[in-house]
Design goal:
This protein has 205 residues and is mostly helical. Strands 1-2 form a two-stranded antiparallel sheet.
Length: 205
């Protein structure tokens, strides 16, 4: 297990990915030990393996080579105000007869409350499930590509953009609550550092 973890780190996997893989191995090791595929002693050793916490993980990242696996971006995209408005006002359509017909047909399926976005199957039939995180991410990626010519836009980028731009003129406690965070440290990780360190600072002396 230790060798596998070292291999993952050397290959450039993120600490979150390493921790996820450790968790998956632990889950499968339990039934494997029950049916005798692996001895109980090995299962006990696997169970004792721990993932990386934030502090330890930061130390590991500081000493290992800076390589990344897959197409995940190294830094979040922070949109400009113009780009954010472009996404918020994606399409304006004339209420033609076919659009009115589509809206009328969809009316019985509209939720009175709760999450607005609904999932659909490959045959375009709506389901009772909410739209999946993966589907939302895919849709945002398409909108970023078609509207802004940004090929790797993600939901996290939009949250990062919102927090960064809202922080410039918002009370930090209001920002924390609006973002759904429980502490100031979490919200600060979503806010892009200012290029001018004293930008927006006002003093009474």
């Amino acid at each position: 297990m230790e060798g596998f973890v070292k291999w993952l780190l050397n290959q450039g996997y993120s600490l979150a990915s390493v921790n996820n893989r450790l968790s998956a191995i632990k889950v499968y090791a339990r039934p494997a030990a029950k049916v005798g595929v692996i001895p109980p002693t090995e299962q006990a050793l696997i169970r004792e393996m721990r993932g990386y916490g934030r502090t330890e993980g930061k130390q590991v990242d500081e000493i290992r080579p800076k390589t990344r696996v897959g197409n995940k971006k190294e830094e979040a995209i922070v949109l400009t105000a113009v780009q954010a408005r472009q996404l918020k006002t994606t399409d304006t359509m004339e209420l033609s007869s076919d659009i009115w017909q589509a809206l009328t047909a969809y009316a019985p399926y509209l939720r009175q409350s709760g999450i607005l976005l609904r999932g659909n199957r490959k045959n375009n039939k709506l389901t009772d499930d909410v739209m999946s995180v993966r589907a939302i991410g895919s849709r945002i990626k398409i909108l970023g590509r078609d509207i802004l010519e940004l090929w790797e836009l993600s939901p996290h980028d939009l949250r990062h953009t919102w927090a960064t731009r809202a922080a410039k003129g918002s009370n930090p406690f209001v920002l924390r609550d609006a973002g759904g965070w429980t502490n100031m440290q979490t919200s600060s990780r979503y806010v892009e550092r200012a290029k001018v360190v004293n930008e927006g600072i006002k003093l009474d002396y």
